[in-house]
Amino acid sequence: MLKTDIHFTGIKLIVADDCDEAGHIICEMFKEVIKNRRNALLGLATGSTPCGLYQNLAEGYAKGEIDFSEVRTINLDEYSGLCRTDKNSFGHFMDEQLFSRINIRPENIMLISGEKDPRTEIERYDSFLAENRTDIQILGLGENGHIGFNEPGDYFIAGTHEVELADDTIRANARFFSDISEVPRRAVTMGVNGILNAERIVLAAYGKKKADAVKRLLSDNRIYPELPCSILKAAHDVTVVIDRELYSCIGG
Ligand code: F6R
User: Fold this and answer.
1) Disulfide check for 205: which of 9, 72, 138, 141 has CB 3.0–4.6 Å away?
2) pLDDT digits 0-9 by tens, 156-182
3) Which of 21, 78, 121, 151 is an active site residue?
């Protein structure tokens, strides 16, 4: 690990050598939470960023170091219209990357269904979040500063909601699809209240493409909806984990 300190925004900053080391560091944070609470509620994300975390968690289970039998999970978002068996859905991603590799109980997994009526899913999610506190939340970061699918806009949206994806998000996520025209235009996402509901938040970002958003996040104390991740300055326990490549782009 290159560097760790408390930033003036109140956010803890960890600079890992690379995304492999970052995945290991974040996994240790998750392990500690699960060790202290067998039925911990883990807030999970999809995309490239958390893959190292999921690999380390699955290895931890295989080595007998982590028991997921009581652990619960809640995911941030899902594309509208995609069912869990669709290879591009976030539900399918989670099954492949983590759930099929650990001893979690299916009834302890909370995912948004992209094929159900969004209003029903929104109500189900917000009722669950009103009654359950997430113990630790992993977040990836959009190049445009989004967290979950809370896209840049004129205001923050507190609750779970359906969103029109920003053009740059569609472009960034096209790499997971055979053609950009296949990327769904809408998604259902946890809102900022759901994210801030977590006891502890870990935002991970790797590589120079995320440098601009991270620089804007750490450059001042402002919270503003054009930079959705800036809402994290309102949370009490936030750690940003970046790699050395990104750090060098933000003047580190
Ligand atoms: C996915 C999600 C998104 C991603 C973000 C970064 O569940 O909530 O906010 O975390 O788009 O994606 P990657 O990690 O693929 O760069």
Assistant:
1) 141
2) 999 999 999 999 999 999 999 999 999
3) 151
